[in-house]
Amino acid sequence: DQQVKQNSPSLSVQEGRISILNCDYTNSMFDYFLWYKKYPAEGPTFLISISSIKDKNEDGRFTVFLNKSAKHLSLHIVPSQPGDSAVYFCAARGTNTGTASKLTFGTGTRLQVTL
Amino acid sequence: NAGVTQTPKFQVLKTGQSMTLQCAQDMNHNSMYWYRQDPGMGLRLIYYSASEGTTDKGEVPNGYNVSRLNKREFSLRLESAAPSQTSVYFCASSVWPQPQHFGDGTRLSIL
């Protein structure tokens, strides 16, 4: 049972345009959400996060939106740059993980930013 | 800063062989994790260690064992490798409530 879903395996966007990556979750116990970015042959790197008490968090070109009632979050990248081409993973953390930050990951969306 | 270091980067095993994947972090993090990444499956948690001296099963622990050797090191052992364990393995570490930091992975093929 996939608790965190990224239904778009890939996305292609022109440089300068907005990239919107989507993520849905089913577990209402998730209270913290993260986006990781992954280049080939490297490990995932943390990009941005949002707590369930917020509906938006912004960091430079990256904004994450959370819609708790719909159990949906999205990552907006504006403007998109060729260096943003990577695989993006959505992840979620529950309330009962103690001091360990156990994460449930989505399957990833491969973003390609074209010139 | 090295961050999270995994060794080896690549390994090929025969079915039935044993193997230990090593992970070390230099960020003084309390918690460490092992994930596997398979095509179309995202990252799945195998085992984690909330703090030195403790380990717990994750989502897919069967066929694996772990050892939290000290605060810095967390190893993953395959006692009898199977082709289904062919994957890319990632180690991560964190300190509450900060996000996890990942190593660059070990690509493991089992023939």
The protein's oligomeric status is: heterodimer
Query: What do the pLDDT scores of chain A average to?
Result: 94
Question: Which structural category do the helix and sheet elements of chain B fall into?
Answer: mainly beta
Percent of residues of chain A in helical segments?
under 10%
Q: Percent of residues of chain B in beta strands?
A: over 45%
Beta-strand content estimate of chain A: over 45%
> Cα distance, first to last residue of chain A?
38 Å
Number of strands of chain B: 11
Q: Spell out the helices and strands of chain A N to C.
A: EEEEEEEEEEE
Helix content of chain B: under 10%
Low-confidence stretches of chain A: none
Q: What is the general shape of chain B?
A: globular
Total beta strands of chain A: 11
CA-based gyration radius of chain A: 14 Å
Give the count of helical stretches of chain B.
Answer: 0
- Helix and strand content put the structural class of chain A at mainly beta
What is the gyration radius of chain B calculated from CA atoms?
13 Å
Largest interface: A-B, 26 and 31 residues
